[in-house]
Amino acid sequence: MEEESDNLMTRRGSECVNDSQIPFSNFRDLTKRYKNELFILDRNDSQTFTKFNLATIGALLDEREASQRLRRIIIDREQPKFSTTLPKIIAKDGKRVLQKLNIIQQKAVLKALTANDYLLLKGLPGTGKTQTIVAIVSLLAMMGKSVIITSHTHSAVDNVLLRLLKENLQFLRLADPSRVPDEIRNYCECVLTIDCKTPEDLKNLYETYNIVGVTCLGSAHPLLVHRTFDVCIVDEATQVLQSTVIRPLISANKFLLVGDPEQLPPIVKSKAAKKLGADESLFARLDSPEATVVLSLQYRMNKTIAKLANSLTYKGELKCANDTVASSTIALPNQIASREKWMVKCLSSHIDQSVILLNTDNVFNRSEEFSKNFSRKLNYTSEDTTDKSAETKVKTRTYSNFCEAGVVLALINSLVQAGVAGSDIGVIATFTSQVKLLRNMVDKFEMDILQEHRGIEVNTVDQYQGRDKSIIIYSCTKCDNPDAVADGVKDTEILQDFRRLTVAITRSRHKLIIIGDIKSLNVYTPFKELFSHLKGMSKLDLNEGKQDFSWQQVMDKLGVLENKVDV
């Protein structure tokens, strides 16, 4: 490459990376002048995140009143204080907002409005935390208060803003328009400020908006630095580093943290940092009976799935909002084509069989044998196979499981034949290797089915947080092999995490099917406890010849996909 063309593609990041290409979006069209040039991509590890967090900690140590107040709350853990009265406008005009909520949500909203400094809102799965946030913002707007809506991700911020649009509330979104949904782009800063000619124009425009949406990392914006808002609401607060969430809190007189400490914490890779408490969120740090209101009436899971979540994690706190939610089961428009007893039981609409555990026993050798030809024809390669050593190959195969994939595909096939829409089916896998394998297979499977049955989503537990489906199939994947060189650290971090398992089992509304080798998983405390609650009608051993089950049939059906793959 000529020297003058150096760094021409450092402006924007990659849009979508896959096995064969890395498409880039660039500010300039390089094809005319550099059409025949060879470009070299250099990885650049940005220090922006680190600098942001260090600057935020520095701001916390400042002598201004806002920093002193936050230090008393964060470091000294000063308990929140509450007013005993509310403005008359809430009693007069707030009824139309409050009447859309259940009694527990109403109490949470009123508690948030009376908080003088801060409040924690613990939103258990399916309890309508976003609806509650929208009600709080609506009433604050009614009171003439200014609000920052923030979170760790753009999607969480926009999820709230989209609901506010339906309430006809105006807001300013601080973000690149390409990062937000189409419905919100006209509310982005660069669109709204296009006619501003002077700093005064900008200042006046900013001050006309009392609701501002921005991610925590975007909260160093001059608008938030130079203006103090009345309230800062942090959604998914349990997933944000303390050093990151402090920045928007400095810009407000009081704050509301919304989240669930029983689900995934902030991502911290460093073991040393974890040991020092870096993965403790501010929500977890401040959580106490005096500071926290719990949303416990849930509208997602039927009573069988909710009972499992309560037994494993929530200690009876989760309550079905009504009888309809409690008794809802899987709906199959058509009769199940397969008459195999194990399949009929898995897809039963009986409320007591809403959770099914399929025990595969140890299928490592069977999976290994099948993968020798299948993985090559499917063009499946694990993300961990860059090192061609035998040790690495064995280690990698530990985190993908063709037999479990075969069972998943058999279940999906029966569900689709029974008329279930693909968008109602979710597949979760513990390891990314298994996710990649399953995605490849599902893509090939969907080639031959009607459009309305497509859209089956396969993802990791982490990517499913905050989401739900009518039917969830969970491939635990782990299956021990005496000759394997297992990555004990990776296993322990993922499989020993109660919070990750809690996310997995609380994504389904009507049917949860868990597939795994009980013996291999029983050494991990969360799974051992999970299995202790799944006995009798809920557990089914996939033994050859029992309940009409045949591994040969399952793997033969899986093998049909070979002919659909371009080698």
UniProtKB/TrEMBL annotation:
One of its GO terms (biological process) is DNA repair. Residues 279-518 form the DNA2/NAM7 helicase-like C-terminal domain. It holds the Pfam family AAA_12. The keyword Phosphoprotein does not apply. It is found in: Nucleus; Chromosome. Keywords: 4Fe-4S, ATP-binding, Chromosome, DNA damage, DNA repair, DNA replication, DNA-binding, Helicase, Hydrolase, Iron, Iron-sulfur, Metal-binding, Multifunctional enzyme, Nuclease, Nucleotide-binding, Nucleus. Residues 100-188, 203-271 form the DNA2/NAM7 helicase helicase domain. Gene3D superfamilies: P-loop containing nucleotide triphosphate hydrolases. It catalyses: ATP + H2O = ADP + phosphate + H(+). GO terms for molecular function: 4 iron, 4 sulfur cluster binding; 5'-flap endonuclease activity; ATP binding; DNA binding; metal ion binding; single-stranded DNA helicase activity. Its main location: nucleus. InterPro entries: Dna2/JHS1_DEXXQ-box (IPR026851), DNA2/NAM7-like (IPR045055), DNA2/NAM7-like_C (IPR041679), DNA2/NAM7_AAA_11 (IPR041677), P-loop_NTPase (IPR027417), SF1_C_Upf1 (IPR047187). Its EC number is 3.1.-.-, 3.6.4.12. It comes from the Eukaryota. GO terms for cellular component: chromosome; cytoplasm; nucleus. The keyword Lyase does not apply. Belongs to the DNA2/NAM7 helicase family. This is DNA replication ATP-dependent helicase/nuclease. It comes from Pseudolycoriella hygida. The lineage of its organism: Eukaryota, Metazoa, Ecdysozoa, Arthropoda, Hexapoda.
